[in-house]
Amino acid sequence: MKVSALIPAYNEENTIKPVITTLKKVEIIDEVVVIDDGSTDNTSDVARGAGARVVRLEENGGKGAALQKGIEIIESDFILMLDGDLIGLTREHIYRLLNPVIAEEVDMTVGVFSEGRGLTDLAQFISPHLSGQRAIKTRLIKKIDNLNSAGYGVEIAINKFVKKYGTLKYVDLTDLTHLMKEEKRGFARGFIDRMKMYYDILKVFIKKI
Ligand SMILES: O=c1ccn([C@@H]2O[C@H](COP(=O)(O)OP(=O)(O)O)[C@@H](O)[C@H]2O)c(=O)[nH]1
Ligand SMILES: O=C(O)[C@@H](COP(=O)(O)O)O[C@H]1O[C@H](CO)[C@@H](O)[C@H](O)[C@H]1O
After folding, report:
1. How many domains does the structure of the chain reveal?
2. Ligand 2 test: best mutation among 82, 130, 193, most atoms within 8 Å of CB?
3. Other CB atoms closer than 10 Å to residue 47's CB: what's the count?
4. Which cofactor does it need (predicted)?
5. pLDDT tens digit string along 141-174?
6. What is the 3-state secondary structure (H, E, C) of 76-124?
7. Gap from CA of 66 to ligand 1 centroid (Å)
8. Rg over CA atoms, the chain
9. Domain of 129: which CATH number?
10. Which of 19, 50, 108, 184 is the most buried (most CB within 10 A)?
């Protein structure tokens, strides 16, 4: 039984190291794979320095394309998907996500922030379906063929597929949060990216897949 952690990352040099360091300490995780989605900062070097296997995409293709690349190269039985901007990740969060999937209780878990920062907790309370923190059976996610162009709609595309062909469960991730786009990229660029995210989500949501 093998487990890979997969982190799509676009300009996450400030936050990715502790995420990788925590993952590397968890015995059941065999490899940590970072797909650097055309970052213009030092994400690749920082991730490599922290012990991750790094695959760099020359152009920024969006979260869906980065995840798709990772899914293609991973040969493990289970994939733990995490964002590169998490703050406060612990081994307990990792086991909460992985255990139900490894135990074959469900095909996928989706982690929902709780008791962390008010704003990110609220966003996930309103829409837990968007969370990027997940564990899933590799053979199931490899069957989804439309992730490449999904961008930020990638979670909705995965949800649609798993709801149709598998089972899923939401798990609480206490005291975990992430940086919001506006915090990472400044208000203007962050807001534009937020609008792009809603557009990507809407596109996938209304498309029949
Ligand atoms: O073009 C992109 C945009 C985002 N990401 C990564 O996808 C994850 C979630 O993105 P982001 O933090 O922007 O989303 P938020 O959590 O703020 O909605 C993070 O690890 C990003 O680095 C990516 O690989 N390519
Ligand atoms: O939770 C949400 O509403 C959004 C936006 O989070 P923020 O408002 O930037 O904290 O973040 C999630 O949605 C994205 C699209 O599905 C995912 O790619 C992210 O992983 C997830 O954190």
Report:
1. 1
2. 130
3. 28
4. Mg(2+)
5. 999 998 999 999 999 999 999 999 999 999 999 9
6. CCEEEECCCCEECCCHHHHHHHHHHHHCCCCCEEEEEEECCCHHHHHHH
7. 10
8. 16
9. 3.90.550.10
10. 19
